[in-house]
Amino acid sequence: MSCSPVKFRPIFKERIWGSDRLKRLYGKELPADAVIGESWELADLPDDKSVVANGPWSGMNVRQLLSEHGQELGFTQEQCEFPFGLLIKFLDANNVLSVQVHPDGQACRKFSEAQLKTECWYVLEAQSDSVIYRGLKPDVSREKLQQALTDGNVEELMERYPAKKGDFHFLPAGTIHALGAGVVVAEIQTPSDTTYRLYDWNRLDSQGRSRQLHIEQALESIHYTCPGCPPPTGDKTYSSPDDTAGILKEIANKLGSAKLLVDCPYFSVVCLSADENAPRQFNSNIPFVMIALNGSGIVGNNDDPENGCQYNAGDTILIPATAKGCLAVRQSGQFLLTCLGPVKVK
Q1: Which residues in 81-163 belong to E strands, given as ranges?
Q2: In a 3-state reduction of DSSP, which class is residue 215?
Q3: Torsion of CA 286, 289, 295, 300, to 10 degrees
Q4: CATH: 2.60.120.10, 1.20.1250.20, 1.10.730.10, 3.30.1340.30. Which one for 6-221?
Q5: How many angstroms separate the CA atoms of 56 and 302, rounded?
Q6: Under a CB-based contact definition with an 8 Å cutoff, are residues 321 and 287 in contact?
Q7: Active site (annotated) includes residue 15
Q8: Alpha carbon separation from 10 to 39, 141, 198, 277, 322 (Å, rounded)
Q9: H helices within the chain, ranges in order?
Q10: What's the pLDDT score for residue 302?
C-alpha cells in the first residue's frame, strides 16, 4: 500500500513569554484571548496528541495513527510504541525564557517522574540584539552556580550567543540554557515535557506570582565544566547499523541543497533549500518529517503529483517510507527534515 503524506493540526500553548508572531509568520489561527508562546506541531504525550488534518485518516490522533497504520507508514514496531520519538514545536519568545535544564538518563534515574529530553533549535527570526544562552562558561562548578543563584547573576556564568536567523543550536540533555527575548525557533526534541527551571529572572505572572522553580533537580541535572567535575555518563552507546542521517541527507540532495545539522542517537536533522521546480522524485526506506519554514508547494506520490499534500510555511508533514515520493516546489523555500535515530527514549 502506498500511503500519502500526513499533515497535522497545531496545538497552541499559552506562555507568559509569548506573543502573536506565529500568526504573522505562519498564519497560525491563534486564540484571541491567550498569549501563545508555543505551537506544538507534532506531539504524542499523555495529555497532548496531534490530530491528522488531511487525507483518509483526518481526525485521527497520532497515537491511533501509529497503532493502526504505523508499519504501513514505514515505522518499525518499536518506533510505533508510545510515545512517538519526536516532539516538534515552534517557540515564540517575546520575552526571555527561564534558565533551565532537561534531564539526561542518569538524572532521570534519580527523579522518578523525569523523562530524558534532548533538543535542538533552528532560529527562524531574531531581533538585532537577541541572544541565546547555551551551556556554562569554563570552570563552573555546582557550588559556583549555587552561589550565583544567591547573588542573582546566573546569566554571567552562561555562554551567550547572538541570535541570528538560520543559526542552529544543539542542546543535549544536561545543557543549561535559555532562549532570549525576540527570538522565534523551530524546536525538534525527544518526547518529553520535563523542564527544571533554575532561575526565572524574578518574573511574576499576571496574578503577581512567581513561577515554580526546580532548583535541586536542576542543579543535579546540569553538566558542569569545572576540572574534576564528573563527566556525563551517557545513556547508550550510539552505534547504528543504519545510517539514517545519511539517508535523510541523500533524500534532501535530490530535492535541492542540503546541510546536515545534527546526527544524535535520538534523531537527525537536515536543512533543505529548494527552488521552484517541476516535481522531483525521491525514494526513502525510512519515514521522515518535513517542516516547511517558508515557501509553498505539494509533496506526494510521483504517480499522482497534483493530488498530493499541499504545504505552506509553518506546516509539519509526516512523509511515509516510499519508493515514489515527489516534491513540487511552487515558491522557493527552506525545510527542516528530521527522522528518528537508532535509540528510542524509554
Answers
A1: 87-93, 99-101, 119-126, 131-136, 158-162
A2: helix
A3: 50
A4: 2.60.120.10
A5: 19
A6: yes
A7: no
A8: 6, 40, 29, 28, 25
A9: 21-26, 62-73, 77-80, 105-110, 142-151, 215-221, 244-255
A10: 80
Q: Rounded to whole angstroms, how far apart are CA atoms 92 and 198?
A: 21
- CA-to-CA distance for 231 and 112, rounded, in angstroms? 22
**Which residues have CB under 8 Å from 305's CB, separation 6+?**
279, 298, 326, 328
Residue 80 contacts residue 64 (beta carbons within 8 Å): no
Q: Which three cell numbers stand for residue 97?
A: 525564557
Residue 242: per-residue pLDDT:
67
Q: Which amino acid is at 100?
A: Q
- The grid cell for 302 is 510521483
> Which pLDDT belongs to residue 24?
94
Residue type, 88: I
Dihedral (CA of 265, 176, 188, 185) sign:
negative
Residues of the chain where predicted confidence (pLDDT) is lower than 70: 1-2, 231-242, 305
Q: Rounded to the nearest 5°, which phi and psi values hold at 177?
A: -160, 165
Backbone angles phi, psi at 154, to 5 degrees: -55, -40
Residue keyed to cell 543550536 = 169
Length of the chain: 346
- The set of residues, in sequence order, having a beta carbon less than 8 Å from that of 147 and lying 6+ positions away, is none
Is the separation of the CB atoms in 49 and 10 below 8 Å? no
For the chain, residues classed under CATH 2.60.120.10 are 6-221, 244-340
Catalytic residue of the set 9, 160, 197, 330: 197
* pLDDT value of position 82: 97
Torsions phi, psi for 74 (to 5 deg): 110, 0
pTM of the model: 0.95
